């Protein structure tokens, strides 16, 4: 689904942005986050696409889930660029990389750190720093996997 600038501006629902070059991760997150009827979610497979949409309306989004290592960007560049425009933006880092510790991720401005692959329970816990009232919809999800460390 494509949102125009007008549809984003006129919406009263929270707006989230998901950025990951892995289509399987985007599909998984799309399926999980479909439970959030009160949230608009935009999905991007490149940081450049996400940046272009965000740059047009920096106040339109309040929460971002992003990968760490994506083509065309290094380290926490996307997080830094977006938060320079909107300091209140909450950014959750979701990565399979081991190059950052939880403490380093926090120092770089991420509100939470989620290691891939992650179970539903870990995603639910990682969304808590976004101060979102929508977490009740996750309460029944349990995929039986071990809980990974989430900060």
Regarding quaternary structure, what we see is: single chain
Order of helices and strands: HEHEHEHEHEH
**Biggest sheet, in brief?**
5 strands, parallel
The top-level CATH class is: Alpha Beta
Shape: globular
Rg, alpha carbons: 15 Å
Question: Structural class of the helices, strands and pairings?
Answer: alpha/beta
Distance between the termini: 32 Å
**Number of E-type strands:** 5
Task: Point out poorly predicted stretches.
Answer: 1-9, 133-151
At the fourth level of CATH, the homologous superfamily is Response regulator
Task: Kindly state the percentage of residues in helix.
Answer: 25-40%
> What is the CATH topology assignment?
Rossmann fold
Q: What is the strand arrangement across the widest sheet?
A: 2-1-3-4-5
Round the mean pLDDT to the nearest integer and report it. Answer: 74
Strand % is 15-25%
Number of helices: 6
How many distinct domains? 1
CATH architecture: 3-Layer(aba) Sandwich
Main attributes?
alpha/beta, 5 strands, globular, disordered N terminus
């Amino acid at each position: 689904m494509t949102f125009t600038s007008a549809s984003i501006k006129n919406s009263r629902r929270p707006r989230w942005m998901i950025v990951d070059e892995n289509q399987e991760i985007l599909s998984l997150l799309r399926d999980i986050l479909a439970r959030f009827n009160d949230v608009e979610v935009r999905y991007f497979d490149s940081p450049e696409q996400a940046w272009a949409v965000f740059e047009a309306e920096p106040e339109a989004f309040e929460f971002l889930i992003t990968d760490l290592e994506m083509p065309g960007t290094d380290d926490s560049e996307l997080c830094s660029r977006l938060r320079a425009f909107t300091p209140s933006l909450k950014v959750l880092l979701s990565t399979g990389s081991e190059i950052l510790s939880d403490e380093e991720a926090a120092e770089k401005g991420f509100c939470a750190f989620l290691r891939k692959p992650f179970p539903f329970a870990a995603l639910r816990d990682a969304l808590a720093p976004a101060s979102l009232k929508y977490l009740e919809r996750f309460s029944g999800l349990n995929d039986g996997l071990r809980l990974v460390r989430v900060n």
